């Protein structure tokens, strides 16, 4: 047999001794720091964040300013990645666009997290009728494919901006996180320390915040992280087909939509490959961090 | 078991009802009415009201809902607001088979690629090929499918000229076997693109499932009895490892249909996805709602089939 369980117990015992007296979150963080891929990903993500924050210092071009004399120009010393079909500087659009893409991904994640934690805790803590109502609501939202539902809502609305797009994403994708949190809470609910807390008269809200959420922090954190990656892809996909953030605001997705013109696709790969790679690298790093967190919080995985 | 099947099918009916209510509610939330886009603003109010009355737009909401549902069951979704004089059913029928072909081709590629690689990775873990597959898995899940599609067109179609990048047939007038090959060639790039994420995730599932099963006691027993490695692999391991994978395929329907919208857009592939995108752009609500209803129906059906299949192939599950 290729898998030898014996080899795994050695480091397991070591970690147990070293971790004595530490809180689960601290243990997880310590394990996370040992995962080189995840730590490297954190650094790359930080670098991306710093670059998009410092965008005004890295380029003197305005990402939304059109210039009819520069339409679809090839790269030059002044315009590193050339210009798009309206003569806007592609390099400036790339780094300013990162701001919008990351903001949409991050805020949608926070918004979903709030909905998911609130509904998930109510559902998992109280159970019964309110639980089945919330779960049926989840089923209803999950009936239509996520992107299809987003697009349908876009068609109903007059216009889309960052706030609206974030709300649409959050309001169409909360069920999966809600279900995960509910599941975690359901198992916690049956444990003795919760019974103990209830017996001495701790209020429901305090039990949820002091006992449930800290104990469920692992799955919540892992899923929130992986979700952010999904949202960045969703934003870019919607912007790509022209129903996300409207022009002239740059995002990585609507930079790529330029490549829907066969001429730009063929002649100026420097215009559409960088934003695509930017999405790919960001999402890849977020996924590595998410997987790293999963391994770190999983009590069963004390190898690696 | 039979009881479970009946109960599961009975759950399907209220879900279907809920789906029609949601779709109808979304349509009611849309601004304007069928006339807002084609109406001359100077038209007489009385004529306008008469037309609304004739179409039943002033009826109470449940009457309108019931009329819409009964028509939808008969396959009548009304007329498109944009394509003059064409019914929604007509527009959908024209595109439907293309999307189905794309879906089938995608599933075939996903299964043919992901399952053997997953098995290989699990049997030879931590070998160069396993690492390669894992890397591909991570990249495949992180690449937005439209970006992969653009890269595929750029490299395979523009630079190398191997495959066509747009549409479903290259020229009218070819038939028979030649037409079949031509259609397949047009399907390759879109289905590779649509299947990328699925292939990557099924490969990972397959690897971990096979690893799980290979580590279980009954496999040790089978080996101890002196069975050949092939018997152990194909008779015992695969049968058990494939159960969750095949079930997941049922849930894949929604992901596939959602992804098809974007992928078809990249390749200007004349399927339901591109029809959906143009209808969103034109605010052609009857078409949008009909496609929503159809996609929702297929997702529910996929889930139903997955549940039924699961209960048949896995006798360990008890339903009471």
Summarize the structure in words:
The complex is a heterodimer of chains A (304) and B (320). With 304 residues, chain A is mostly helical. Chain A has a domain of 197 residues: MetI-like (MetI-like fold). In chain A, 73% of the residues lie in helices and 0% in strands. Chain A is built from 14 helices and no strands. In chain A, α3 crosses α5, α5 runs parallel beside α8 and α11 runs antiparallel to α14. In chain A, 39% of the residues are buried. Chain B has 320 residues and is mostly helical. Chain B folds into two domains: 74 residues, no CATH class; 223 residues, MetI-like (MetI-like fold, Orthogonal Bundle). Chain B contains eleven helices and no strands. In chain B, α6 packs across α7. The longest helix of chain B is centred in the middle third of the chain and has 39 residues. Chain B is globular. The termini of chain B are close together. At the A-B interface, α7, α11 and α14 of A face α1, α5, α6, α9 and α10 of B. Chain A: It is a multi-pass membrane protein. Chain A: This is ABC transporter permease. Chain A: One of its GO terms (cellular component) is plasma membrane. Chain A: Its main location: membrane. Chain A: One of its GO terms (biological process) is transmembrane transport.
């Amino acid at each position: 047999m290729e898998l030898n369980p014996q080899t795994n117990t050695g480091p397991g015992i070591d970690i147990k001794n070293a971790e004595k007296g530490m809180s689960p979150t601290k243990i997880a963080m310590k394990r996370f720091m040992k995962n080189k891929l995840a730590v490297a990903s954190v650094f790359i993500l930080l670098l991306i964040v710093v670059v998009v924050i410092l965008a005004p210092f890295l380029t003197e071009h305005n990402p939304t300013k059109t210039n009819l004399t520069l339409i679809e120009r090839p790269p030059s010393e002044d315009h590193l990645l050339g210009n798009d079909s309206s003569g806007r500087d592609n390099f400036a659009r790339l780094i300013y666009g990162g701001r919008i893409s990351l903001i949409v991904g991050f805020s949608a994640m926070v918004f979903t997290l709030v909905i998911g934690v609130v509904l998930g805790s109510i559902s998992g803590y109280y159970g019964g009728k309110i639980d089945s109502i919330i779960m049926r609501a989840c089923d209803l939202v999950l009936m239509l494919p996520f992107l299809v539902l987003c697009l349908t809502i876009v068609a109903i609305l007059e216009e889309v901006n960052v706030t609206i797009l974030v709300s649409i994403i959050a309001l169409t994708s909360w069920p999966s996180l809600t279900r995960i949190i509910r599941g975690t809470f359901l198992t916690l609910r049956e444990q003795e320390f919760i019974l103990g807390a209830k017996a001495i008269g701790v209020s429901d809200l305090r039990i949820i915040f002091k006992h449930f959420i800290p104990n469920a922090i692992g799955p919540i954190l892992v899923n929130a992280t992986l979700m952010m990656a999904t949202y960045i892809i969703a934003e870019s996909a919607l912007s790509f087909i022209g129903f996300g953030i409207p022009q002239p605001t740059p995002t990585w997705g609507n930079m790529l939509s330029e490549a829907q013109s066969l001429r730009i696709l063929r002649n100026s790969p420097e215009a559409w490959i960088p934003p695509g790679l930017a999405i790919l690298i960001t999402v890849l790093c977020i996924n590595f961090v998410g997987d790293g967190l999963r391994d770190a919080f999983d009590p069963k995985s004390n190898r690696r | 078991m039979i009881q479970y099947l009946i109960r599961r099918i009975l759950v399907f009916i209220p879900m279907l009802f809920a789906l029609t209510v949601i779709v109808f509610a979304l349509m009611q939330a849309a601004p304007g009415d069928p006339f807002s886009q084609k109406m001359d603003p100077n038209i007489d109010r009385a004529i306008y009201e008469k037309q609304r009355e004739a179409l039943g737009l002033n009826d109470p909401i449940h009457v309108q809902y019931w009329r819409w549902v009964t028509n939808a069951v008969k396959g009548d979704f009304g007329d498109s607001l944009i394509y003059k004089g064409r019914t929604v059913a007509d527009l959908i029928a024209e595109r439907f088979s293309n999307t189905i072909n794309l879906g089938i081709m995608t599933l075939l590629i996903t299964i043919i690629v992901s399952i053997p690689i997953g098995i290989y990775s699990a049997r030879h873990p931590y070998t160069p090929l396993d690492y390669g597959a894992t890397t591909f898995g991570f990249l495949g899940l992180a690449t937005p499918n439209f970006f992969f599609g653009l890269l595929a067109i750029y490299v395979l179609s523009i630079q190398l000229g191997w495959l066509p990048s747009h549409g479903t047939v290259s020229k009218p007038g070819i038939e028979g076997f030649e037409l079949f090959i031509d259609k397949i060639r047009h399907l390759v790039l879109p289905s590779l693109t649509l299947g990328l994420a699925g292939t990557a995730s099924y490969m990972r599932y397959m690897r971990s499932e096979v690893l799980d099963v290979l580590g279980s006691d009954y496999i040790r027993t089978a080996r101890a009895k002196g069975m050949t490695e092939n018997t152990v692999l194909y008779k015992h391991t695969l049968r058990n490892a494939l159960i969750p994978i095949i079930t997941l395929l049922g849930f894949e329907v929604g992901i596939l249909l959602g992804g098809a919208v974007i992928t078809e857009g990249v390749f200007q592939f004349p399927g339901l996805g591109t029809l959906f995108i143009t209808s969103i752009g034109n605010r052609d609500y009857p078409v949008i709602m009909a496609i929503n209803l159809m996609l929702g129906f297929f997702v529910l059906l996929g889930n139903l089939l997955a549940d039924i299949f699961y209960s048949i192939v896995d006798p360990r599950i008890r339903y009471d």
